[in-house]
Amino acid sequence: MNFVECHEEPIHIPGYIQSFGYLIGIDAGSHSITFFSKNITDIFRIENAEQLFDRHLTDFPEIFRSVIDSDLYISLDSFTKRENETHFDKVFISGKEYHISIFRNGKHIFLEFEAVLENPNKRISNKYDNFYVIDNEKELWEQLLSTLSKIVNYDRMMVYKFMMDGSGKVIAEKRDEDMESYLGLHYPESDIPKQARELYLRKRKRIFSNVYAETVPLMSRTVENIDLSFAASRGMSPVHGQYIKNSGASSSFSVSIIIDDHLWGLVTCQNSEPKHIDLEDRVQAGIFTALASNAYSSFKSKNELNYRLELNERSSQLKSEFLKHNNLFDSLADNKVKIKKLPEADGLVIISEGHTVTTGTVPDHGTIDRIAHWALENTEESIYVSRNFLKNYGQELGLDENAAGIIIYFIERSKKEMLIWFRKEFSEHISWAGNPEKKIGVFLQNGEEKQIVSPRTSFHTFTENIKGNSKRWNSRDISSVQAVRDVILETSHKQYNAIKALNNELRKVNEELDSFSYTISHDLGTPLTVMKLNAQMLLSNFEKTEKNKNKLTSIVEEIDNMAEMMHDVLQLSRAKHSEIELERLQPLNTIIKISENAKMTFDSPKSEIIIKECPDVLADKTMLHQVFLNIINNAVKYSSHQEDPKVEIWGIEEGDTVVYRISDNGIGIPQEEKHKMFKIFNRMDNAKKFKGNGVGLSIVHRIMKRIGGNVDYESSNVDDEHNKGGTCFILTFKKP
Questions:
Q1: 215 near 16, Cβ under 8 Å?
Q2: CA distances (Å), 543 to each of 101, 199, 538, 728, in order?
Q3: How far apart are CA 326 and CA 332, in angstroms?
Q4: Contacts (Cβ under 8 Å, ≥6 apart) of 147
Q5: 519 burial type by CB count under 10 A (0-12 exposed, 13-18 middle, 19+ buried)
Q6: CA nearest to 359, candidates 342, 383, 374
Q7: d(Cα 539, Cα 533) in Å, to the nearest integer?
Q8: What ranges make up the beta strands (E) of 62-107?
Q9: 230 neighbors 202 (Cβ within 8 angstroms)
Q10: How far apart are CA 508 and CA 512, in angstroms?
């Protein structure tokens, strides 16, 4: 009997599909049929399915007429140029409507069918921006579950986050009142093994409609081990099926939460009764999950940027203090409390120039000496980090609870100079959904008995008490230690000169600019994808008149153009020192298009936009569009609540420059906040009722400086009683 580890189970090639699906596989080159699911005869009138092998769908026009005539099949080669990209349509087969999904995987093109299901209980609007106004992690995921419950509505819906040790934790939950709560429970890594996580990263929506239903085998004469990684109806592994049964569920649905191209977690849903969700509803659930993931990533990146700016400020202050001294030891000793607090440690030890100085809660001097000797003998990296130092080396080094967690920075190994930060022991109590200990079970695979780690039979809470660890050192703690390292390197022996100062400031600015690019790519990229998905779905569902198809096709093309332009802007921002192409440009058409779109974007059809003289300017084409996009959008947005919103745009030549003015009669800008106007993520108090993230004007300011221009503004006082005011932004370009 063979033993199979969980991570070795070949879940992508089960050899069968679920009963709700129907599958035909054709050769990507010849388009001849190479495999199909045994139940294909249930929807197509085929007396002998064997006759399909090595033939084409077009050889059976009466049987496959609706498929052959579909837009997807007519343009099959075009739709399957990219591997693993799925396209959708609907067809009628024997009078019944089916979804058809087409994708290519390796040498085969898959045609997957499933019946269209009406969802009379669906209660959802196409409002996609709700997640972006939430700045609290817990509320964000609860909002996602609340939104998804109006689409799929399972008995239990959870957000499951993968932890650093590979386990998972339920961080949000929506369930029926009579069900036990799983909120806060942990699940061992073996519950979702490595190959399953890889599949969740590739195929982001996964449904098991009925774990008790019979599976449908795949039929083929020539192809073995058919890869069903991207098939929606891929059959579940017997181990996972038993796991779901043991949990008391009959059906499950999961959507991957992808952040920074990594599998961050899952939305996982369970139902006590068998339950199938229509393909369109599953796609919409995926869209909302992607939006929430994007909002979370944007929220985290903004917080991280704010932390980085704060850390830079604290590092600058520490550097100033270091430069008051003539030697490194005095610099460290006089600032020991500040250095201890940077990574939020309980204690700090400074070993330098033959001296040992401590602050906070640290081990005794004998233990410190043993730790220092151990570190010199057993580590190679310049910064060593451990949260389980007591657990791993407590007996060997005679440690107590004050040395559970440790960070060591080697200032200079040859001189045995180092900084050691300590954290005290933290009693950690982990509540598991059942005992995480592994048990061996037996299952059948292709008629052969195999041993594998058996899924748990109980999900009752099991509490594990973990000793010998400190609280986890996070990425901010490591960054703080690196900041101390940088201060030491830059100030040692007062060899700190103007060139280093300039390089350091440039590095900070570039890091800040990278953060802009990161935030913008998330804030703009996903809404574009959503628009395109909806437009493509309309193409397949809409009344197919030539006029309607042309309009929707035009929308998709414009979205692609916008995505390409956004990509160029982001690449230029990340390049930092890449060359820009200054040329003579006529802004009029750009201004007109942006103005028309702004009225639709901010739902302000009554806005009057007056465009006067628009002389040519010297600028970069992509950057010019970004400048006018941000300024005009702001003008329309902040005047949209006025009774008669009005925006005026005009340009005049003034000597060697061209000056554009964009004025509005909106909320205005308080004079006391003028100094903050172009700072990152800054928003005026009177603007917070409008949606925005405070990035736009900072981008405009940077671009105008980059192309040799300038941005300024004039604003009248705001009259709160009558809600009057107004702002005029002034853009100064070089004359071509």
A1: yes
A2: 20, 36, 9, 45
A3: 11
A4: 124, 130, 288
A5: buried
A6: 342
A7: 10
A8: 87-93, 96-105
A9: yes
A10: 6
By DSSP bridging, strand 216-220 and strand 96-105 are unpaired
- Residue among 641, 630, 640 at smallest CA distance from 609: 640
Copy the structure tokens of residue 736: 């071509």
Q: What is the DSSP letter of 719?
A: B
Please enumerate in sequence order all residues whose Cβ is within 8 A of that of 178, keeping only pairs 6 or more positions apart, or say none: none
Above pLDDT 70, what percent of the chain?
A: 78
Cα 77–Cα 78–Cα 81 angle in degrees, nearest 5:
80
Q: Would you call 247 helix, strand, or coil by DSSP?
A: coil
DSSP of 29-42, one letter per residue?
A: TT--EEEEEGGGGG
Burial of 185 (0-12, 13-18, 19+ CB in 10 A): buried
Tokens matching residue 318: 């520490």
Asked if residue 516 lies in contact with residue 698, where contact means CB atoms within 8 angstroms, the answer is: yes
Share of the chain above pLDDT 90, in %: 50
310 φ/ψ angles, rounded to the nearest 5 degrees: -65, -40
Report which DSSP code applies to 655. Answer: T
* Amino acid present at 28: A
What is the C-alpha to C-alpha distance for residues 563 and 566, in angstroms, rounded to an integer? 5
Distance CA 288, CA 280 (A): 12
Q: In what order do the strands lie in the sheet with 16-17?
A: 16-17, 216-220, 33-37, 21-27, 108-115, 96-105, 87-93
What DSSP string describes 423-458?
E----EEEEEES----EEEEEEETTEEEEEEEPPS-
pTM for the full predicted model: 0.63
Angle (deg, nearest 10), helices 279-322 and 475-491: 30
Output the average pLDDT for the chain: 84
Angle at 521 between CA 314 and CA 593, to 5 degrees: 125
Structure tokens at 579: 């060359």
| Helices and strands per DSSP (H, E), number in the chain | 17, 30
Question: How many Å is the Cα radius of gyration of the chain?
Answer: 31
Residue type, 302: K
Cα–Cα distance for residue pair 371/380, rounded to 1 Å: 15
- CA distances (Å), origin 677, targets 316, 513, 658: 24, 17, 23
3 state SS of 182? coil
Amino acid present at 178: D
Res. 689 pLDDT band, cuts 50 70 90: confident
Q: What's the pLDDT tens digit per position in 31-80? A: 999 999 999 999 998 888 899 999 999 999 989 999 999 988 988 888 88
Phi/psi-derived region of residue 723, left when phi > 0, alpha when psi is between -120 and 50, beta in every other case: left
pLDDT in tens, 554-613: 777 777 666 655 654 554 454 344 467 899 999 999 999 999 988 888 888 889 999 999
How far apart are the C-alpha atoms of 476 and 478, rounded to whole Å? 5
Count of C-beta atoms within a 10 Å radius of residue 696: 18
Residues sharing a CB contact under 8 Å with residue 245, sequence separation 6 or more, in sequence order:
211, 212
CA distances 346 to 341, 462, 470, 476, Å, are: 8, 31, 10, 16
